[in-house]
Amino acid sequence: MKEVKIESTLYVYENIEELPVEAAHLMQKAFQARDRAYAPYSHFNVGAAILLDNGEIITGNNQENASYPSGLCAERTAIYYAGSQYPNAKVVRMAISATSKNKPTSNPIPPCGACRQAIAEYEVKQDSPIEIYFMGEIGKIAKSGSLANLLPLVFDKSVL
Ligand code: THU
């Protein structure tokens, strides 16, 4: 038996002013999308903005449903739309921001496991890393250089 350690690396920016200008612009798009979220049940609004290698910016937000599991997260709303509209484009980066009506969100809020799995599919498909920037409403922003870094031991097509 041997121990196997798995490491992930995040880069943490103090605030949006410290971000590279292109990432800050994408985060602003995520803010705008977040503010259009349909989240009457959780009151937890999430926005995601995606930059494609053709220059297009695609945004999405969470869409909830009275039948709770029928709702969808912001990140998947955005990436499925990008995949459906631009099937041959590569995803360069994604910016995510979340706010809650129940409590302040001033720490980086990472994408849920299901969204990581969904984004991983596109990272594997395009064979190049997708940068992920995530934050709450204000405060620090975390950057992951790839989706794989956020989802070690990914389940992908290589096992099928
Ligand atoms: N949500 C997202 O949009 N993205 C995530 O990564 C986690 C959760 C949404 C789903 C639901 O509408 C609300 O946030 C509370 O879970």
Automatic annotation (TrEMBL):
The reply to whether Metal-binding figures as a keyword in the UniProt entry is: yes
Q: Which residues form the CMP/dCMP-type deaminase domain?
A: 21-158
**CDD domains assigned to the protein according to its UniProt record, in alphabetical order:** cytidine_deaminase
The domain of life is Bacteria
Q: Write down the top EC class of this protein.
A: hydrolase
- Coiled-coil residues are none
* EC number(s) reported in the record: 3.5.4.5
Q: Which UniProt keywords apply?
A: Hydrolase, Metal-binding, Zinc
Q: Which cofactor does it need?
A: Zn(2+)
* Gene Ontology molecular function: cytidine deaminase activity
Q: Which reaction(s) does its UniProt entry say it catalyses?
A: 2'-deoxycytidine + H2O + H(+) = 2'-deoxyuridine + NH4(+); cytidine + H2O + H(+) = uridine + NH4(+)
UniProt xrefs under InterPro entries: APOBEC/CMP_deaminase_Zn-bd (IPR016192), CMP_dCMP_dom (IPR002125), Cyt/Deoxycyt_deaminase (IPR050202), Cyt_deam_tetra (IPR006262), Cytidine_deaminase-like (IPR016193)
Is Hydrolase among the key words of this record? Answer: yes
Give a short account of what the protein does: This enzyme scavenges exogenous and endogenous cytidine and 2'-deoxycytidine for UMP synthesis.
Q: Which family does it belong to?
A: Belongs to the cytidine and deoxycytidylate deaminase family.
Name of the protein in its database record: Cytidine deaminase
Source species of the chain: Mariniflexile gromovii
Which taxonomic lineage is given here? Bacteria, Pseudomonadati, Bacteroidota, Flavobacteriia, Flavobacteriales
